[in-house]
Amino acid sequence: QLDYGLFQDFLLLEAEGSRRSVYYKMKRTATPEFSTADSIRKKPFTVSLRTATPGAEIRYTLDGSDPKRTSKLYTKPILIKKSTIVKARAFSPEYLPGKIAQRKFYVVKKKRYSTANLKRGIRYRYYEGSWGKVPEFEFLKEIRSGVVSKMDLDMERKGSKFALLFEGFIKTEKEGDYKFYLVSNDGSKLFVDDILVVDNDGEHGALEKTGRVKLTKGYHAFRLEYFDGGGSQALNLTFEGPGIERKEIPEDMLFCTDEN
User: Fold this and answer.
1) What is the pTM of this model?
2) 24-44 exposure pattern, b = at least 16 Cβ within 10 A, e = fewer
3) Strands across the sheet containing 2-4
4) Which of 10-14, 29-33, 103-107, 161-165 comes out lowest in average pLDDT?
5) Phi, psi values for residue 253, rounded to 5°
6) Cα–Cα distance measured from residue 218 to residue 212, given in angstroms and rounded to the nearest whole number
7) How many whole angstroms separate alpha carbon 138 and alpha carbon 6?
8) pLDDT value, residue 3
9) Side-chain-facing half-sphere of 133: CA atoms under 13 Å
């Protein structure tokens, strides 16, 4: 009789009618090793993999899913063209599958913002999944996107476990200090000119966090990230600035490009 023992790496061997049992420890393939640790690069590069288990093959994924025996077979260095999560696992007919190894690689190009041909509104991107903090959106595949006049939860979406990314520009008429008030349930983050102004991340009830930033007159890159981990939801952003009392950001201050 063959059966699994109490631990995943053991098989229980029993002979029918016998009181004697033997636990046989199963061997696993070695965890794949990457040629480089997590890194940030400015242009595409290659990543190599190896395993210490003789004859084992390495299977890998680039979409964040766990590698299976049917996943892409590693035969040559992987070309990383954009920010990617690489997961790898070794398989062999003689051993149990080994542990999954993963690395995050970022290809960060210098951001250039053009304010030509802008239109009113802010672009949103909608995602579904399960997270405990604001996800890294560059690794996710959006379900839908569009342009809205304000940043809230008034759109087609699931009842829970989803994420939103709002991107565009905010146009200020006066130079000075601007203070932002961000209320969310669960987590959220606000970036202005790629600077984290408000960090309200994590799983929590409706909670307000604030941040202040000095802005010149003109257009500034604007990014609001949000996720719901389950249960109730809330998202509300208000601000105040030179000659402006606290209020929601009006539509005539929000702009985005025609590009997705």
Assistant:
1) 0.68
2) eeeebbbebebeeeeeeeeee
3) 2-4, 10-14, 21-25
4) 10-14
5) -105, -5
6) 17
7) 40
8) 43
9) 6
Assigned token pair, 34: 């990457």
Supply 20's token pair. Answer: 């004697």
φ, ψ at 137 (rounded to 5°): -60, -25
The closest alpha carbon to 83, from 67, 62, 65, 60, belongs to 62
Distance CA 91, CA 55 (A): 9
Paired strand residues for 59: 73, 89
For residue 245, give both structure tokens: 């009392």
Distance from C-alpha of 60 to C-alpha of 64, rounded to nearest angstrom: 10
Separation between Cα atoms, residue 254 and residue 170, nearest integer Å: 5
CA distance 156 to 179: 30
User: Whole-angstrom Cα distance, residue 84 to residue 92?
Assistant: 26
C-alpha dihedral sign at 126, 145, 112, 169: negative
Specify whether the CB–CB gap between 226 and 127 falls below 8 A: no
The amino acid at 129? G
Give the pLDDT confidence of 138-189 residue by residue, as tens digits. Answer: 888 899 999 999 999 998 888 899 999 999 999 999 999 999 999 999 999 9
d(CA 210, CA 208): 7
